Amino acid sequence: xxxxxxxxxxxxxxxxxxxxxxxxxxxxxxxxxxxxxxxxxxxxxxxxxxxxxxxxxxxxxxxxxxxxxxxxxxxxxxxxxxxxxxxxxxxx
Length: 92
Known about the structure:
Helix content: 10-25%
Number of helices: 3
CATH topology: Ubiquitin-like (UB roll)
Protein name: MoaD family protein
InterPro entries: Beta-grasp_dom_sf (IPR012675), Mopterin_synth/thiamin_S_b (IPR016155), Sulfur_Carrier/Prot_Modifier (IPR052045), ThiS/MoaD-like (IPR003749)
CATH superfamily: Beta-grasp domain
């Protein structure tokens, strides 16, 4: 089962630092599954925009690779994958 790690404020939003979930499919479906599992935590609305795309300041890594370079929301998630989701910080 894939392990999902939540970093920075996503750990606060989800109330979890990590989550192991039974899932086999694409990142888009994984986001829906996690959102369902975390009922009422605003997970999906925090990381995706109104069109369902990952917000610019959110990074999703599968085994250390940013999904933006590996197929985006269509990237496959396999049983032994490690997924890390976090919001990038900017400032000056």
